[in-house]
């Protein structure tokens, strides 16, 4: 017996009796109505997966308009319900009209029992799939609200960051596929969230997938879903991320980690805008806004035969390069203050401040781990601090190795930046001592640090 509650609406009571006898052994419950005016109250009182609806109720009127009217009312009350229209008049134009209005399928009187059951079971499965997707969307929204309980902001005002945000605002209003590039820890996911927030899809869900964390064996199941029994552990049918993201945005993080042979399957889904669950031949259309991110050079990977060129063109309609923290100048201090307030509140250490020497140390460091590294550095300093004023020695950063960081391939500007970082590190954040070592004034050194973010 298929799980599912069925509502049958037809003014012919003999039709109702025949369908009830035929369908009762096949479905969980069967309810019949001979008066369509009772539909609204019935739907308010009980939940149905499937409705079988007559096209005509008044004698002598065969236009199907009544059926279309009640179909619309049913879908307004329960958008996910599958509605199969039933009529004695085989009219192609009427069929198309009903399907456009939201009907799942269409059957004719007199019917073939086997075909009727197959049609209804397929319509029921569609309803159950929609319910699964809705439940997953609600679950995703719940997880997102839990994670975002403390609001995440894009913090800073450097020219490099403002340029990125201006591009985000322009791109967000379009449906263009976006590729976000940048080093680890620069905030690529925050940029993706901002694109979704400013887009026409903001009322729908943004589904994030870490492509680097999905094993090859689970790739198709995770992205495209599966039906019950498709493989050993498939105990229940489950929609994939593409289905859950329908009408919203899909964010594929670390797309450069996807193996070459799986890239073809992803490309097909993106091109065709439809997917099939594992174990099913039924295609499911998906309407998504695609946003991808990577810290890798995909063009180099294309030349090396590691990334499909056609996939790169598909995901790269617009590219947004997120600048590393070392190129954002005094945004370092703005972010440091932001994280300081956050963790001072979290660990109940009010009135914490960073002194000038410590600020100089933060400004002079190259931040290879970018914003993520700065955040962890500030949190650690707050946890371990015994005083209200944080000094240079309260901040623990990776040591700068000059031989490793300065290479012959670097530009003069890059070498100068590394020399400045090394001098500041060596003098424990003291800009005056670092400037003296470099043979320039303190103001010149500060100007060079600030200029590196422009």
Automatic annotation (TrEMBL):
PROSITE patterns: RESPONSE_REGULATORY (PS50110), SIGMA54_INTERACT_2 (PS00676), SIGMA54_INTERACT_3 (PS00688), SIGMA54_INTERACT_4 (PS50045)
Keywords assigned by UniProt, alphabetized: ATP-binding, DNA-binding, Nucleotide-binding, Phosphoprotein, Transcription, Transcription regulation
One of the protein's GO biological processes: phosphorelay signal transduction system
Keyword hit for Nucleotide-binding: yes
Signal peptide extent: none
Response regulatory domain residues: 5-124
Pfam families registered for this protein in UniProt: AAA_lid_14, HTH_8, Response_reg, Sigma54_activat
Coiled coil stretches, renumbered: none
Record domain Sigma-54 factor interaction: where: 154-383
Gene Ontology MF annotations: ATP binding; sequence-specific DNA binding
Residue numbers carrying 4-aspartylphosphate: 54
Keyword Cell membrane applies: no
PANTHER family recorded: ALGINATE BIOSYNTHESIS TRANSCRIPTIONAL REGULATORY PROTEIN ALGB, TRANSCRIPTIONAL REGULATORY PROTEIN
UniProt protein name: Two-component system response regulator
